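Following up on my earlier message about zinc ion. Here are the inputs again, as you asked, copied directly from the submission form:
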Amino acid sequence: MCEKKRVLVCEFHQETDTFNPIVMTKEDFAAFRYAEGEEGYRLCKGQHCATHGIIDAIEEAGGEVVPSVFVYALAGGRVSDEVLAYVQDRIHRTIAGAGQLDAVCALLHGATCTESNDDACGTILQQLRQELGEEIPITVSLDLHANVTEKILKNADVVCGHQTYPHVDIYETAYRAGRMCMALLAGERVTMAAVRLPMLTPPVGYSTETQPLRSVMDRGQALVAAGTLLDFTVFNVQPWLDVPEIGSAVVAVAAEAETAKSCARELAAEFFAHREAYWPQLMDIDGVIDRAEDRESKKPVILVDSADSPNGGAVGDSVAVALRLRERGSRLRAAMFVKDPQAVEQAFAVGVGNRAEFTVGAKYTAHVPGPMVAVGRVRSLHDGIVRREGPVNPGEVFSVGRAAVLSFDNLDVLVCHAPAAPGDPQLLRHFGIEPKLYDLVVVKANASFRAAYCAFAGEICYADTPGAGAANLHRFRWQHLPRGLYPFDLPADYCVEPAKIYR
Ligand SMILES: [Zn+2]
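Thanks, got it. Here's what our run produced:
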């Protein structure tokens, strides 16, 4: 009788921005997923999430899932060492207690740092390799923005990342990783080649829906459709990692090593050649304020402050735009949110309708202007429970913690404990700030706001703002980056290197 192949499945997902100083703890993960064994399996199986994609691929191919550990959080600062230690301990216990294991399929983000570890994903893969041996297949599902390190490439047989940004293939990416795992188990020839590229670019500057990245993806997908490649990924690393090993990468998977190598090199060369095109057109803050003051339409100008987007891993505590509005004595009706628990609690003490001097923002992120010190009026106080209007998950409830709306003349500021869903207009609307009725709305998001805000915006302006997620990478005081990295000090004679087989 043929025994089912048994595949260890584990998840550790968080995207780190090392410029965000707030460490993410077990509680931040528990708000989403912090589970193990059968409980984790049930949580993932029931949702259209990435891990569900892995599970489906394994079970459809007749394999058995051995669930290990499942922890998930959104983007933010470094993860506490405690969380990584928990993940490693659960993996160790699963291996010790599971009996026969034939393979591993891991769901990782790929750009995750802890307090003391710059490559948490590589560390997990190394542990799996060491505990299970060189022969066992290990495949991994990663984010397109993963930092694909040597440790990841040396310990995984195949890595699969998203082929879309914005990511709309989360389930499908994980399914590909599961399918590759089952192909390896079935004895099929599967070889991965990789090219690493010394390149950082800001996510707000590109999309797989637009050129030139679209043509790189089309080329890769054509190679898969033709049967030349089994899989490919273009990893455009998220750039807010001040670590010694960082870069973009391209991987190609084929039956023959030479095919994988030549396709990886070809795709990498095209991806890299367009590097100057992956940058957004940024306006300075004053330029955007001028546009709002000079406009003829009644529709609001949206100032996109992607540098302070909590979705991108930043804090959400910047008041850079508020300060410029006040310094200019602008009469624009303007609105924004700011993470500031102290200001919230002060507002509760002061009470609705009363005035006080507030010190707002700039309490976490280093090297941003502020705080803003001004006398404001407490307009309203809230428990911070909000329903999304969409288009993502309309009706779903999220919490920003206790919150208050403070008015400083024409400037309305939502202060809250933990900003969330920054691209959803309900983050303002719910609190009585109707974006349509303002001249200038500061939106701290990268791309998630577009669908909802484009419906009523007069103009959308991406601003060159400071913050832990700044698109202008020259703003940061980098300390640990390697030499020879684009856009900083790439040697003029740099050539894309040949692809390597790491295993
Ligand atoms: Zn991503």
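One observation from looking it over: Residues 143-145, 167 surround zinc ion (CB under 6 Å). Hope that helps, and feel free to reply on this thread.
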